[in-house]
Amino acid sequence: KTEGKTIAGYEKIIELTKKIKEIFEEEERDYEAEAKRIVTNLEKALEEGAKKNYVAEGLAGVGTKESMELRERLLKE
Questions:
Q1: Of these four, 15, 38, 50, 72, which has the most CB atoms within 10 Å of its CB?
Q2: Which superkingdom heads the taxonomic lineage of this protein's source (predicted)?
């Protein structure tokens, strides 16, 4: 096997690496959208009478600006 040992091989590796980075960047954007959706749904649940403890548990693992603001709001109430 000579793949990776020639200029064409290195170019192929670089091309594949770029594609992998693009995939991970897309997943990151999807994560942010999902995290915002979670926070929005938890805020709605809180407005509809959900217990604060359950809303706080639902925020576990969500690390966005919106989730931090909701946590602060829950602590103040």
A1: 38
A2: Bacteria
